[in-house]
Amino acid sequence: MSKLIPDYVFDSIYDITPELLEKHGVRGVLIDLDGTMASHKAALPPEKLSPFVHTLCDAGLRVLVFSNNREARVGRFCQALGVDFISRAGKPFAAGFRRAAEQLGLPLGQIAVVGDQIFTDVFGGNRMGALTCYVQTLDRHFFWINVRYQIERGFIERGKRRMEERARHG
Description:
Layout: E1 8-10, H1 18-23, E2 28-31, H2 49-58, E3 62-66, H3 71-81, E4 84-86, H4 94-104, E5 111-115, H5 118-127, E6 131-135, H6 143-168
Parallel strand pairs: 1-6, 2-3, 2-5, 3-4, 5-6
């Protein structure tokens, strides 16, 4: 069960700073697309996403969009954003995470996985030894996504407590 608990819980990706990631030895970031960077209904990146991604890149972090969605959807989004991607990543299975680490040229221990799903992003990232950052989904108003959130809620709360405990102890 501990593999389902994120290392960090954030309201959105915009709360994640390069300083936090670097403090954990992170040099690369795998970011989920749908529900994390933008709603699954958004064809193109929101205006404030590009400055966020460039802040990570300017800090020397390698960024890769890591999505289970189709290449046509992910490719169009990432071309507009100006970042590399892996579509049909196969999260939470190990092969996709290994392929992403290889593409970044980094060991998984130096990678953060950022996403809005416990059973794909967090579980897969934790199994592979990455730092996991859960963010509240942008699509919670959709019925089935809200149902998923209700199932994940206990793990999210445990992640918040883990994060608060870490903050208290240094």
